[in-house]
Amino acid sequence: MNWESNIRRVVPYTPGEQPKCTDVIKLNTNENPYPPTLRVAEILSNYEYHRMRLYPDTNSEVLVNALADFYKVKPSQIFVGVGSDDVISMAFMTFFNSDKPILFPDITYSFYDVWADVYRIPYKTIPLTEDFRIDPADYRIENGGIIFPNPNAPTGVLESLETVEEIIRANPDSVVMVDEAYIDFGGKSALSLLDKYENLLVIQTFSKSRSMAGMRIGFAIGSEKMIKYLNDVKFSVNSYTMNPLTQLCGAEAVKDTAYFEKTTQRIAATREHAKERLTAMGFTYPDSMSNFIFASHPDYDAAEIFAALKERRIFVRHWNKPRISQYLRITIGTPEEMEAFFTALEEILRTLPKRGNA
Ligand code: PMP
């Protein structure tokens, strides 16, 4: 009768909607609008299915080696997982094991507090400044660890390497994780700081800049010591997380540097154009260096714009949360998708009642 009293109860993370129908313009989960490199298609079509009989390489060597070559680090400095969600979750379990609260921004990736809750890690959120910036001075308090995305999500705001370093430098007794899910769209990676700080963990993903959200590949790069600790925990939970086909596809994707550069630059160019169009329509937004823009209109209600777009089968993301309820997060699609989005948005703004006049 009492079996429910000992359950680990949690409120789970809410992912963005994945609509079943395909005739939608999907600008709601920061996916890449371009396909992965054709090298991935080749691996998929040539793969001998009977190889699935065997367990995968638990060390994902083929993928780890490709990443080590690309980022010019030792393979022993790399940890891979099933999406960066898996990597960050393992990293929380490994490195955030103190009675002191871990710190992250109040407006940030909404999975951090969920992991903290599920692992019973105390946390304290640090308010971003009025203009959605991280003030490194706020991170000079006692803590059990620190994590923040750079660029931040859902704001898109990029902090300088100096700001990132200031936080790491001030916290030699904590692990500092920089979640760089969106770094390839114009930011400077904290990977260049790894030689200086043994307590830094940089986390990246194949889901955005490498167009492989469905394949689930994420990775962390840090000191050899840190990666050893991370692997010890991972191998105490589940050794066979990444399947062999994914390992091969990931390795091939990393090797196609030209395609990676072409698509990320194209998205950055579409983003810059989108900023101009949004400004012309009266939207304001913190400057974004990611593959999305976090925009607000002074005259129209964000939830109403969100609903009107959805009626036209255009999906963006909206959170009914303090400080950000008047913002929409708009993923950068292809130029054609963005054109259709702007046409719909113009129409909506012409017909929607202004805020407060409803
Ligand atoms: N970090 C941030 C900041 C994100 O926005 C996302 C995407 N939802 C992730 C991590 C996780 O991405 P994935 O698990 O697909 O690598």
Description:
The chain is of the alpha/beta class and 358 residues long. The chain folds into 2 domains: 3-34 and 258-351, Alpha-Beta Complex (Aspartate Aminotransferase, domain 1); 47-256, Type I PLP-dependent aspartate aminotransferase-like (Major domain) (Aspartate Aminotransferase, domain 2, 3-Layer(aba) Sandwich), CATH 3.40.640. It is built from 10 helices and 11 strands. It has helices at residues 38-46, 61-71, 83-95, 112-118, 161-169, 224-234, 244-255, 257-280, 302-311, 335-351, and strands at residues 25-26, 78-81, 102-105, 123-126, 146-149, 176-179, 200-205, 218-222, 292-296, 314-315, 327-331. The strands form 4 sheets. A 5-stranded mixed sheet has the order 2-8-7-6-5, with helices on both faces. A two-stranded parallel sheet has the order 1-10. α5 links the parallel β5 (146-149) and β6. α1 runs antiparallel to α7 (244-255). The mean pLDDT is 97. Residues 83-85, 109, 149, 153, 179, 181, 205, 207, 213, 218 line the site of 4'-deoxy-4'-aminopyridoxal-5'-phosphate.
* Class by SSE composition: alpha/beta
Mean pLDDT over the full residue set: 97
The largest sheet is: 5 strands, mixed
> Biggest sheet: strands side by side, in what order?
2-8-7-6-5
Bound molecules: 4'-deoxy-4'-aminopyridoxal-5'-phosphate
The H/E string reads EHHEHEHEEHEEEHHHEHEEH
The CATH architecture assignment of the largest domain turns out to be 3-Layer(aba) Sandwich
The name of the CATH topology of the largest domain is Aspartate Aminotransferase, domain 2
Portion in strands? 5-15%
**Would you identify the CATH H-level superfamily of the largest domain?**
Type I PLP-dependent aspartate aminotransferase-like (Major domain)
